[in-house]
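Researcher: Quick test of sequence recovery. Tokens follow.
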């Protein structure tokens, strides 16, 4: 079976600016047979892979008012510190997040008497967190926790806005990039350029009848014109299902899946998901006029007119 993703041919206007990632998935007959044996519903291990995500960004120290002092709150790992913050969100009394950020010191050599400190904090704006230090010489690891209605960004197109719930526990570096993107207030060049509907291979719930093509996806780029993209290393990779938003390789190219793709297994960093009510917009993009092309022996459907988008906060208080 041909792999669904391949290098997009560069055009003269963007040559030297886009970092195009080639990710090849080789599926032999044995793998196909294994795929056909998968159950329709997500297995327990797949559910745990998403529910148990609790990661942070190394070399980052977030600032802000402390709701629990690290000098009195020592834990064995960054994941435990993250879980301690999650336990305070939502609060049983009013449903708010008493903790939305955490800072942990886990390098015994560098932390010395601060080793194990877990600071739980509350940001004034969790989508613009206060940063006091960042870099390889910073001994702290920090992460975010989003409460209900937080951590949602919108990809505003001429067909409507695709709202994406970001996943800071699974993909903290990816979320960090979106926070940076919102701060730039500019997403010139961000667009969808490939669109393949579900065709007759998947039903409306995302269940499959065959592998493809078409591959039931949108593909685009999140690189801003004139701003070099720093590759994002592999993060948590739960299986891709309908609505999943994931990097192709290390970015800046990304995909939105219109169907369940268990055959891709854990090949992609999933950093968010499209809110269910907005999947109709993704489906509308997928049926726009396309032209068939071949990229590295892979047949793809390329939009005749790319769909450009702006990146906005859900509140529209800050846009890019």
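Model:
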């Amino acid at each position: 079976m041909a792999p669904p993703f391949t290098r997009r041919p560069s055009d003269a206007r963007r040559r030297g600016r886009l970092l195009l990632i080639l990710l090849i998935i080789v599926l032999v007959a044995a793998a196909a047979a294994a795929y056909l044996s998968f159950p329709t519903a997500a297995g327990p291990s797949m559910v745990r892979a998403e529910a148990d995500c609790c990661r942070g960004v190394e070399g980052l120290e977030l600032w802000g008012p402390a709701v629990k002092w690290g000098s009195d709150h020592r834990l064995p790992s960054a994941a435990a510190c993250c879980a301690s913050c999650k336990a305070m969100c939502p609060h049983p009394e009013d449903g708010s997040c008493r903790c939305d950020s955490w800072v942990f010191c886990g390098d015994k050599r560098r932390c010395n008497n601060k080793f194990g400190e877990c600071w739980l904090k509350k940001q004034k704006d969790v989508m613009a967190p206060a940063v006091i230090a960042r870099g390889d010489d910073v001994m702290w690891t920090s992460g975010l926790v989003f409460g209900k209605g937080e951590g949602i960004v919108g990809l505003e197109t001429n067909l409507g806005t695709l709202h994406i719930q970001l996943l800071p526990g699974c993909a903290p570096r990816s979320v960090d990039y979106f926070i940076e993107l919102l701060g730039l207030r500019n997403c010139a060049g961000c667009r969808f350029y490939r669109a393949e509907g579900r065709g007759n291979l998947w039903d409306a719930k995302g269940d499959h009848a065959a592998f493809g093509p078409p591959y039931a996806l949108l593909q685009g780029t999140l690189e801003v014109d004139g701003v070099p993209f720093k590759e994002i290393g592999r993060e948590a990779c739960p299986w891709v299902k309908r609505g999943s938003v994931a990097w192709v390789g290390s970015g800046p190219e990304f995909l939105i899946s219109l169907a369940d793709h268990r055959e891709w297994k854990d090949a992609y960093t999933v950093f968010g998901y499209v809110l269910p009510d907005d999947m109709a917009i993704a489906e509308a993009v997928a049926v726009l006029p396309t032209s068939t092309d071949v990229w590295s022996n892979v047949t793809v459907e390329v939009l005749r007119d790319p769909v450009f988008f702006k990146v906005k906060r859900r509140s529209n208080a800050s846009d890019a």
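The chain has two domains: 57-144, 151-313.
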